[in-house]
Design brief:
The chain has a single domain, classed as RutC-like (60s Ribosomal Protein L30, Chain: A, 2-Layer Sandwich). 30% of the residues lie in helices and 23% in strands. The chain contains 3 helices and 5 strands; from the N terminus they run H-E-E-H-E-H-E-E. The longest helix is centred in the middle third of the chain and has 23 residues, at 60-82. It is globular.
Length: 155
């Protein structure tokens, strides 16, 4: 078990299976020392636990938890190409999309769920730049979607 996966276990978390693509793309690709993930939905056991817009059908607190799930799914996608999460030198960038009710402006707080999870799991290696974007709708009516870019150490 890698040190990162041991840390996940300490937090009571397990790395899920990689979420299969919904269309014509790969869950993650490596280019040089970087791994770029596709947008990860908060899928749990192949389905979304909740759907709808944040600020309407979904609370900001629920969405923050869903963003944590997205980040966990993103780590699984990274592992699928890196082979070992201990190779993560740092998370470089996180981009999050929040399906938002027209008057909802708390996207940064929602995306803190993903950012905080990465910090809890990776420590200083999890500190990153980030964008939090409100959108009208996401695939499958998901409330949140997260993609990450990580830099790897040499194999």
């Amino acid at each position: 078990m890698s040190a990162v996966e041991a840390r996940l276990a300490e937090l009571g978390l397990t790395l899920p299976a990689v979420v299969p693509p919904l269309a014509a793309y790969q869950p993650a690709v490596q280019s040089g020392p970087y791994v770029f993930t596709a947008g990860q939905l908060p899928m749990v056991d192949g389905k979304l636990p909740v759907t709808g817009k944040v600020g309407a059908e979904v609370t900001a607190e629920e969405a923050k938890e869903l963003a944590r799930t997205c980040a966990l799914n993103a780590l699984a996608a990274v592992k699928s190409v890196a082979g070992d999460l201990d190779r993560v030198a740092r998370v470089v960038k996180v981009v999050g999309f929040v399906a938002s009710a027209a008057d909802f402006t708390g996207q940064p707080g929602v995306l803190n769920g993903a950012s905080e999870l990465l910090g809890e799991v990776l420590g200083d290696k999890g500190v990153h730049a980030r964008s939090a974007v409100g959108v009208a709708v996401l695939p499958l009516d998901a409330p949140v979607e997260v993609e990450i870019q990580v830099e790897l150490t040499q194999a």
